[in-house]
User: What shape does this take?
Amino acid sequence: MIVDAHAHLLPRDYPAEAPACFPHMEPVEGSTDRLLVFDQMRFSAKEVFFQAERRIEAMDGSGVDVEVVSPMPPLLRYDLPDADGLALARHVNEFAAHLCSYDRDRLLGLGMVPMQNPDAATAELSAIKELGLSGVEIASNVLGSSIGHEKFLPFFQEAERLDISVFVHAMPSPMERLPSSAMGTYVVGIEGMFAAASMILGGTAAACPDLRISFSHAAGGLAMMLPRANYFWGGSWNEEPRNLERAVMPDDGPSPLEYARRFYYDSMVFDRRTIRYLIDLLGADRLLVGSDFPAMLREEPVAKTLASMDLPEEEWEDISWRNALRWLGRDLEA
Assistant: This one.
């Protein structure tokens, strides 16, 4: 069994009476594709983004048993006015629920919230749960503020209280230190690291020990910085990454690595050596299959790199499906 925990959806249309700042979808002549127009953005969306039948066909063709579908990241526009951001989120969430109703066993949906207004985002979590969605997707930063900032703590506490899973998708935040051409590659990796590190350093991980949270693309460079963070926290770096241990009094609290091992990470890092390191450092019980489909083509078959590693059966079962269901709080026996 394989659960693709990182795939995306787009609504086919948006309300005719929607505010001017909303995205809209235009027909593409001679094609079933739709053109997403959102300010300066133009993106040709294939039918599989919004047609449940096409999604199931694509899943069957790739060997995917269950797909976790979240809003296409450009929809996470936190610069919209508060009311418009909430209206957009509700429209996308209702579409996600409708899409997943086609086959609730195989399509598990995530919603979105207007994080530019933390109070409104927190209040909207109940509506996401009522729609039957499996969790919520947020961006790695909100108008330049990392998600571990204290102003977002009530949001994560409410997600924990409602037993709602959180998916953090790395999103570029423009910076002068790298050219704009690096936004979709290097900056995304940096953003994932910033987001996960801010959850540890900002105190959210400590305040929300039962929060189920996953990071796209293995949280970028987080795993590479963790050994150094642990060393200066007071730990020791052993030749075997699995044996990275604490060297301080037990009542000093968890180490950065121990906090990081509470999170989940999709393993879409394109390299088996990197996956091996992630397994050694974070554990096979922390990794998920992800594809970014249909924004990107899946490996054929899905999880080809993982499958090529000849992992022990228990590790393969964890990464290929069990961890995703754990992250989503679902019964493994169902």
